[in-house]
Amino acid sequence: MSISAEADEGKNADNTKVSISMGDFKFKEILGEDAARKVAFVLLDAVNDCSNQAVLIVEKTPFPVNEEDWNTIVSNCSLKIVSTNDIYSNLTLFPPEKFAGIKTTLINPCTEKHILKYRDQKRYVIHETWDDYKSITLPYLEEHQFTLKWIFNLLEHKAEVDRVIFDDPDRQNGFVLALDIKWDGKNLANLYVLAIIRRKGIKSIRRPVY
């Protein structure tokens, strides 16, 4: 299975142009999926280099909520009949291209940490004490931490500048408030923002249990 698609040109953190071609990758395996969220995590191999892998995160975008968009969908869609029974028809609706997009995140090159993060695995709820955090959780976080380059790019206005809503430059108590990529940029009911503090060294915020 191969994936062939061209992405519009964008700009990297250093303001250089970047172009992504999905034709450079081929399907490897499904790492996991969430039917409720309508999201899937797909592992890809580079076509010419199997040692270069990528994680593709695909997620259905929310439905539009305004009358104009729905009039466009209804008048320009195509239908495939699955079954009918009395007044009920079970159909597959194919919307116009404008509404057929799938929200996608590409992590390339990905590491084993990324693959493990998105692979289906058992989840546990643990009652963690302060001593547990210091002796177990914190060392694990420090050893397995992902790169923070994307965070510093945002804090230093090297990337996603157009997504910043508020910026307090104070090094001790300041933070940046930015639109998260989880938001489709349209439906305010699904608005999702990300707050990133400027103070370095904080791994988590929690109320310790002794």
From TrEMBL:
Report any one BP term from Gene Ontology: deadenylation-dependent decapping of nuclear-transcribed mRNA
Coiled-coil intervals, chain numbering: none
Q: Which SUPFAM superfamilies match?
A: HIT-like, mRNA decapping enzyme DcpS N-terminal domain
What reaction is this protein's catalytic activity? a 5'-end (N(7)-methyl 5'-triphosphoguanosine)-ribonucleoside in mRNA + H2O = N(7)-methyl-GMP + a 5'-end diphospho-ribonucleoside in mRNA + 2 H(+)
One annotated GO molecular function: 5'-(N(7)-methyl 5'-triphosphoguanosine)-[mRNA] diphosphatase activity
Q: Which GO terms describe its cellular component?
A: nucleus; P-body
Q: What is its EC number?
A: 3.6.1.59
Family that this chain belongs to: Belongs to the HIT family.
> What name does UniProt use for this protein?
m7GpppX diphosphatase
Organism per entry: Litomosoides sigmodontis (Filarial nematode worm)
